[in-house]
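Section 3.1: Structural characterization of target chains.
Under the original work plan, the team committed to producing a structural model for every single-chain target entering the pipeline before any wet-lab resources were allocated. The record below documents one such target. The sequence was received from the expression subgroup and is listed exactly as submitted; it comprises 94 residues.
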Amino acid sequence: MKKIIVATTLMATFLFSGCTEEKPKTVEYYKAHIDEAKEVLQQCEDDFMAAMNTKNTEALKKVQEDKKCIAAKKGIKQYKKEHSKSVNWENMPE
């Protein structure tokens, strides 16, 4: 009987642990939430500089490969591209 209770408890733990994990945010998410993307990117840049200053190659690699940092940076880049004002050179005064 104890084995069944332990097995059930372990199984429930594994099943419900997947429900609470936060899925990584996408480029599209950060493009739509630009202020959050800027905050994330600032933290990533701070972590990068700290790793550079301490010459911690493991931390440096971790920041460079961080999916959250990459998605935030790409989201900001796409946001800027889509929201930049294009210049119409044909209507410029001579």
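The chain has five helices and no strands.
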